[in-house]
From TrEMBL:
Domain of life: Eukaryota
Family: Belongs to the WD repeat WDR48 family.
Species of origin: Tetradesmus obliquus (Green alga)
InterPro entries referenced in this protein's UniProt entry, alphabetically: WD40/YVTN_repeat-like_dom_sf, WD40_PAC1, WD40_repeat_CS, WD40_repeat_dom_sf, WD40_rpt, WDR48, WDR48/Bun107
Entry protein name: Anaphase-promoting complex subunit 4 WD40 domain-containing protein
Lineage summary: Eukaryota, Viridiplantae, Chlorophyta, core chlorophytes, Chlorophyceae
Amino acid sequence: MYNAAASNGANKPKKERKLTVIFKHTTADQHVAGVEALAVAPDSSSLYTASRDSLVKRWHVGSAAGSRPQCSGSFEGHIDWVNDVLLYQDKLVSCSSDRTVKIWQAGEEVRCLHTVQHHSDYVTCLAASEAAGKLVSAGLRSEVITYDMQTLQAHLLMPYPSSSSSGSAASSTTDAAGSADAAAAAAAGGGGQPPQAPMRSVYALAMSSAGTLVAAGTTEAYIRLLDPRSGQKVMKLKGHTDNVRALLLNEEGTLLLSGSSDNTVRLWDLGQQRCVQTLNVHTDSVWCLAASPDFSVVYSGGRDQCLYATHMARRKAWLLAREPQPIRSIALANCGTRLWVSTTLSSVHGYDIPFEYCGTAVQQQQQQQQHSGQLPAADGSSNGPAAERLGSSGSSSAAAAAAAVPAGGRTLSGSASGRAVIGSSPSMRLRGSFDPGAGGEVPLLSPSVCIDGALGLVALPVLSNKRHVLTRDSNPPRARPSLFPLYCFGICAGLVALRVLSDKRHVLTRDSAGHVQLWDVLAGQPIQQLGQVDIADMERRLFRPLYVESWFTADIKLGALALNLEPPKCFAAECYALDLGVRDVPDDQKVNLGACLLRTALSKWAHEFSRLHMSGAPLPGLDDPGADQLPHFSDQLPPAVVSTDASGTAWRLGANAFTGREREGEHIPPWVAEAVLRGLLPYVKELKSAFVLLPAEGSGLPSLLQSRLNAPRILQVMKVANYCATKLAELNVPLATHEVGLSPDSQQPPENSGKQFLELTCNGLAVPYSMSLATIKKFIWKRSDDVVFHYRTLDPARLAPFPNFQLPEA
């Protein structure tokens, strides 16, 4: 029996579940990180985008050119990058680096129907067959798992069971909850443990429409084909020399397209079990593929930021667009006449494809619609010298392809139609008819928000013999491009760098556009826009000597600022309520920073839970006097809360989406519920700090009756000085105190006061009275034992040297 998710944690000691708060830095309903995958609704009215920010969004994309797509739904539930997404009937399926596959209701009501967690590592890709009722997921450790969409029963296809397995290569199954049948596991020879997973991964999947064939692209540079019904290996295709990153099967399951990190796209005839064409148009890894239904035109994109269209029968490739960042996904819509493109940026571009770049079947359909009056006449094929060159080159093969395509636009390998699409010499690499001296230019599609200038669109040499060199015209024609971006949406700069300031309350972040913001994490929002400045230089400018125990870890891996909280560390920092702006409270009233953030993030849940289960009882820390004066989150920028339930399944909810029905212990971690509902915090010993008060050598001052003291770490030295002066006055040594600031000028006492003043030193250095005991220990004492203060009568002529404070090295 294979259940990697369950077995991996079987023998590990239980650890307290952590809680993460993810802040929003924009009110716009947009992604804040790269878009990894796209899915188009069957009627092309909706586009689904899966992002590195852990969200999937649905966009209404109208048919009017230039109309801005509107976000019509947000699928919030994953807690890590969403790597792939697909539509299955009226459902949406997504997979993530959080090791889960989620099935959503894709209609107007957005809700998660099921979460399955059978993978032991990142889930990278999906494929499905509606006819067979099957879903396939794959990821790291070469795990390929199929699911019955009716029962959600899981079946392991890869890695293959060990040789000791009895009988067939079919692997064990698990149900939707992740439970395993121990007897079946023993029969498989695994003794309830998963087979040893080789250190390789699967980054691409494809499944035939009938559900009888699954293709998996591996980091071994192989393409493995499997029968999902029996679990048996069908074949292994060799030819690529690096990771296989994209796969595409035709509807009949006879032709397979593959893109690889070896910079090539290969077309495979599965009947012959060999590669019949190789496209060498890219200069770096190929990450995504799309094709017309008959495979007559192939669209490819990848790490070189280039989007190519390759006409398989004409044996030509055209550079359609160059994006500002590597292309992660492309998707065809509107019957093959529109192309959506996403990159490692948060934006998505939509292009309407001219007639000459569409597949043969699409062209035939458009021609039929034109003859019937449903479409205006297409003039793209007779528009200028560039179109003439496109029309003349390979016209005979194009005509042959058009004549050979059967009804429905499908082609069969080995038939006349298959040869027309593949080319007359299928065993040879795709050759381009590139003529460096040919006249005319076809303008390049360049998204105006991303690219400065334009590139010439020319036919490319696609042979690997390196005999031809592609040159770029430094003065491209300024004619209107044949293709131009009609849609561009979702642009929002994600966060790419952060610095936590010394007060452990403020954080500097820099977004992908270079803008730096100053955040207050207790308020959950940026409080100052600092512009395009160097974040390290700004950190030095904002530095002040202050030591606060680290109570959170921060990350920006989702393109947004996230704070991770774990007990008891998250309760290790506190400050005085007066320092947080709370008025009319005792000056020694303290606020725990971790508890303050938890109560703010879970305020909606706590009050709803109290109303439903605690008869509306007041909540400590939330309903106390002055609680409304503490920092709190903005209604316009509500954060998201992420944790795991008692079974280990991750969940994510907006701070305003809690209903109070989330049970403590089952959904909300027990330590969080104790802190938010009852104000009970785990005891942390380090909240106190010991220090010693001794007279300076030669000062002539007496020793105090009690020289070793214990006080809160946040206690300011001013109170230590006042205590010392009070105790000396009891010993008939009257000394006044004056506040010493963070500059040497503040050491001088007031003139003509007629008083003698107390001077405190530590390690021979003057002590600023505004510092806390913890700060003195960190920046001046610099040792782990008790801090020692020396006191003496202040002599304006012999002031103690002032400390030099510098930003500690990371």
